[in-house]
Automatic annotation (TrEMBL):
NCBIfam families found in the cross-reference section: SgcJ/EcaC family oxidoreductase
Protein's recorded name: Uncharacterized protein (TIGR02246 family)
Record Gene3D superfamilies: 3.10.450.50
Organism: Thermomonospora umbrina
Residues covered by the SnoaL-like domain: 9-131
Length: 141
């Protein structure tokens, strides 16, 4: 049976998540475009552009994660056309203490991919956590 584009992308994302969890930089960078744009939870607020800036974001995360934090895909949905695709996922991401204190919190992941030279590559990556506190300015409106 031939794998569908969705199957290939799902495998790509699952390999990426395993690489993130194990601190494997080569695995994290694999299948990412040279001109990737990423919006992450920590600054810079304008995001990072290019594989070199993307690479530079990971060592602090790996250092934090080495203290026993989880990075596990809980759900993953993929939609693919012939040349472009997107995926969104929810991940358990946090230390045991953080996850125990707020077990429902999930990291939200959105990926944009392009089919280039016979393979799928991640061109856009966005990570976010839901805002759990209402800013005081919102309540004052």
């Amino acid at each position: 049976m031939t794998a569908t584009a969705e199957d290939r992308i799902r495998t790509l994302i699952e390999r990426w998540a395993e690489a993130v969890h194990s601190g494997d930089m080569d695995g994290v960078l694999a299948d990412h475009a040279e001109d990737i744009v990423m919006f992450d939870v920590p600054p810079p607020f304008e995001g990072v552009r290019g594989i070199a800036e993307y690479r530079a974001t990971w060592p602090p995360f790996f250092e934090w994660q080495a203290n026993g934090a989880a990075f596990e895909i809980e759900s993953l949905d993929v939609t693919a056309g012939d040349d472009v695709a997107f995926a969104h996922a929810l991940l358990r991401c946090g230390t045991a203490e953080e996850l125990a204190a707020d077990p429902a919190t999930r990291l939200r992941l959105t990926l944009g991919l392009c089919h280039e030279d016979g393979r799928w590559v991640v061109t856009h990556e966005h990570h976010s956590f839901p805002l759990t506190e209402t800013p005081s300015s919102v309540g004052d409106v």
